[in-house]
Amino acid sequence: MRVCLISTYELGHQPFALASPARWLADEGADVTCTDLAVECLDEAALAEAGLIAIHLSMHTATRIAAAAVPKIRAINPDAHLCFYGLYAPVNDAYLRETLGGQSVLGGEVEGELVRLYRHLAHGEPWDGGDGVALIKHRFKVPRREGLPSLDNYATLDPGDGSQVTVGYTEASRGCKHLCRHCPVVPVYNGRFFIVSREVVLEDCRRQIADGARHITFGDPDFFNGPGHALKLVEAFHGEFPEVTYDATIKVEHLHQHADKLARLRATGCLFVTTAVESVNDEVLAKLDKGHTRADFIAAVRAADAAGLTLSPTFIPFHPWATPEGYLDLLQLLAELDLIENVAPIQLSIRLLIPQGSRILELDDIHRYLDGFDAEKLSYRWSAGDPRADALQAEVRDAVQQGEREGAGRRAVFQRIWELAHAACGRTAPPLPVSHHTGGVPAMSEPWYCCAEPTEEQLAQV
């Protein structure tokens, strides 16, 4: 039976979440076709023959784009079993079934469940349920990347010298042991995480490096959920591929707690670490249950600097408790810490998304900011307690999108945002401090982010 696996958006990476289940399904005897709508069109011939169409929903943007694609998919093949899987699938179960016509919805460790679904359909048996979240540990397999667009179709890395490096992507663990209120991983994994065996990860890296990758992104929600596993992995990786660099995502809390391990990351080829700071206001950080404080973030920056490790902080600066003064405080701290070039401009415009199942809804004071659930946008509508913050967010968003269209550098976009924030506070913007960076900061060519609303351009590409 033909199976079509479809991805819509994976932050500029070749889709691991197609390659991994493709291996499992192919081993079961399925005729698997993978399509990544971020870089290619629908394969109409394959879709027309499919008995199972499974669409991966990794995040908010991917889900919104998928919703725009489903009518076209159904027009080509109205009879195939339509499955949705990924982090954003279980929390949007009702929408995916009632509005998009999904017949199965899977989350968590989905490979085994997709195989079980395939078996039922291939034998003409009705699907007997099993929908929802699977958190059963299984033996991971090396992803099957044959049939996916080549790596040169995806985002590249500027290591800081203006060159463009081909990037691969893999995962050394799945899920997360933390329970940050706003995180889309939490409603699915609820504090569970699963280690992928070192040899599976290394073999996936080997194959991508053979296909031209000279940098690997480890896309785990938190690379230091299992620091011992992570360090042994990168030491083996560096021993085999000393010229290949990598990046990873690590919580501020872990950067602070494991400051003594950061030099080992740098020594094994870590080019930068993405870290979800979200806010520099301790009251907001407590509401988000982030596990770190403003002081911890500053300490993590100092520790990374001491280790020669570049940080790439991410933020959710606009939320119900935001004020222009608080936003300006964030910008001032970034300038003080010489992080202007380290922060992708999109990070300074992101507005909190509150999907179904979010732990944000547990907060006693949140409901006074809410105005119902927007089924089309898959998020609760909310307004900031200070209306000036909402107005400022719209201005910052427009400035970021204009900067992206113009190809403006990070410092130039920050300058514009700096001026907008000061104006919102009734102040005149002083000159930005001079940067002490002696070279460029490593950055990916894909500027977007999983927790941002999709742009009109992204939706129009479907």
TrEMBL record:
Top-rank taxon: Bacteria
Keyword flag Metal-binding: yes
InterPro entries from the UniProt entry: BchE-like (IPR051198), Elp3/MiaA/NifB-like_rSAM (IPR006638), rSAM (IPR007197), rSAM_CUAEP (IPR054699), rSAM_horseshoe (IPR023404), rSAM_sf (IPR058240)
Pfam families in UniProt: Radical_SAM (PF04055)
Domain Radical SAM core: 162-374
The entry's keywords: Iron, Iron-sulfur, Metal-binding, S-adenosyl-L-methionine
Needed cofactors: [4Fe-4S] cluster
GO molecular function: catalytic activity; iron-sulfur cluster binding; metal ion binding
GO CC annotations on file: cytosol
Name under which the protein is recorded: Radical SAM superfamily enzyme YgiQ, UPF0313 family
Organism expressing this protein natively: Limimonas halophila
